[in-house]
Structure formats: structure tokens, C-alpha cells
Amino acid sequence: EVQHLATALTNALDNGLYLGTSSWSFPGWSGLIYGAPTGKANLSQQGLPAYSQHPLLRSVGIDSGFYAPLDATRLKHWAEQVPAQFRFVVKAPALITDRYRRAARGRPVELNPGFLDPDLATEVAVRPYQQGLGAKAGILLWQIPPLSGTERKETRRFAEAIYRFLSRLPKGPTYAVELRDANLLTPDLAAALHHGGAVPGLALHPRLPPLPEQLALFADY
User: Fold this and answer.
1) Which of 109, 125, 157, 196 has the maximal Cβ count within 10 Å?
2) What's the pLDDT score for residue 34?
3) What's the predicted TM-score (pTM) here?
4) Cα–Cα distance measured from residue 34 to residue 49, given in angstroms and rounded to the nearest whole number
5) What is the number of other CB atoms lying within 10 angstroms of the CB of residue 60?
6) Distance separating alpha carbons of residues 5 and 16, to the nearest angstrom
7) Residue 9: what are its φ and ψ, rounded to 5°?
């Protein structure tokens, strides 16, 4: 009955809507997504095919890309396990998106020389994403962690930096930019994403305004 309901919901949804979660390896889904109970480590290796067969789950996020670059071989291995209509959302590495190099527990220790470097981004994120996922590439997400107090005030400069970065990336992939600083969500940023060829990544997060406010900011684009 649950499976029939999921199928009915899927048929009622717009074909352009891709529902998914941030991972496919949750042991608590046994009986819903997976068959017999099994451990997280096993699901990490073998759970994706079962996840991708659920009628409502047509995409998945790969958060691990934020912590270390993902090579094309690994991405291709995942792409081969899912149906043709399935799509991946891949987080680009902090090597590109974080303004700082960080110590334990996220404490900033020094500036990151690779921050918003389009050449490095192309090498370690864009090319592997394209080559590994092919037609199953959904979104390459540039998630920007919080900036310093001074930098958060320079909203126009930040928007210009984002535009320069996006405009120098290879064309083709769908790029999204997601922030963790509310005051950087400005009309200048909305214009930078639009003219840079990216879409906004909206998030429910205590550092950000409610989703309706975020949507309103980007409504004109």
C-alpha cells in the first residue's frame, strides 16, 4: 500500500521536480527503501541501487564532495547504479568554496588561496563532475561557509567576486550557489547569479531568513 501511494504521488508530480535526500545510507529506512536491515557501512557501498528504485526518490545529494574532491571514477561508479532519469546533486569541495583553511571544529586558521579560483574549481570539481556523471549530472553546488564580520559587510564586493568566479567556469553544468550569511543575500547577489549562469541554492538554516524571503529575493530572475 505504501508503495502504491508513493507511485501515485510520483505520477502527480511535475516531471521537472526531483525529490531526494542528502544521502542513501540510512539504516532506519529498512523496510521502506531497503529490504532486510543492514549496517550503514554496507548501505554506503550497496544502498544506492535500492534507493534509486524508489518511485519518489529521483535524486540524491553527495555531501562528501564538500570535504574532499570526488574523482570521475567514483562518480561514474555511482552513476552506473541508477536509472537514466536519476540525477545527482554534488557539493563542490571546501577547497574552492571556503574562504578559510580550518582547524578542528571548524576554527579558521588562515586564508584559503584556492577560494573562488575558477581554474582550480574546473580541475578538481567541474571536470570530474561532467566526466563521471554525464547525463545524470543534476547540480554542482557551491556552498559558501560563513565569512568574517568584515567581509559580510562588503556585500557588493562579494557579489562581484561570485560573478567573476561563475563567469569563468565551463559552460554546460547547472551551477547553484548556497550561502550561510543572511546579509550577503542581496539584489546584487541575485543579479550576479543570474548573469553568471547559476541558480540560487535555498536552505533552511538558522543563519538565514525564512524560505519565502529567500524566494522573494530571486523572484525577478
Assistant:
1) 125
2) 81
3) 0.90
4) 10
5) 24
6) 20
7) -65, -40
Q: Which grid cell sits at 121? A: 574549481
If the chain, 221 residues long, is cut into consecutive pieces of 10 residues, what is the mean pLDDT of each piece? 62 80 87 75 85 91 96 98 97 97 86 97 98 98 92 93 98 97 96 97 95 94 80
CB 48 within 8 A of CB 23: no
Q: Would you say 104 and 115 are in contact if contact means Cβ atoms under 8 Å apart? A: no
Q: How far apart are CA 190 and CA 51, in angstroms?
A: 34
Cβ pair 93, 65 in contact under 8 A: yes
> 156: buried, middle or exposed (CB in 10 Å: 19+, 13-18, 0-12)?
exposed
- What was the pLDDT predicted at 144? 97
Helix (H) or strand (E) holding 21: strand 20-21
Residues, the chain: 221
- Rounded to 5 degrees, what are φ and ψ at 176? -130, 145
Please report, to the nearest 10 degrees, the dihedral formed by the alpha carbons of residues 59, 61, 65, 71 taken in order: -10
Question: CA 32, CA 149: separation in Å to the nearest integer?
Answer: 45
| Contact (Cβ atoms closer than 8 angstroms) between residue 34 and residue 59 | no
pLDDT for res 4:
62
The amino acid sitting at 116 is L
Neighbour count for residue 2 (Cβ, 10 Å): 8
Strands 108-111, 100-102: pairing kind = antiparallel
Pairing of strands 137-144, 87-91: parallel
The dihedral of CA 46, 94, 16, 23: what is its sign? positive
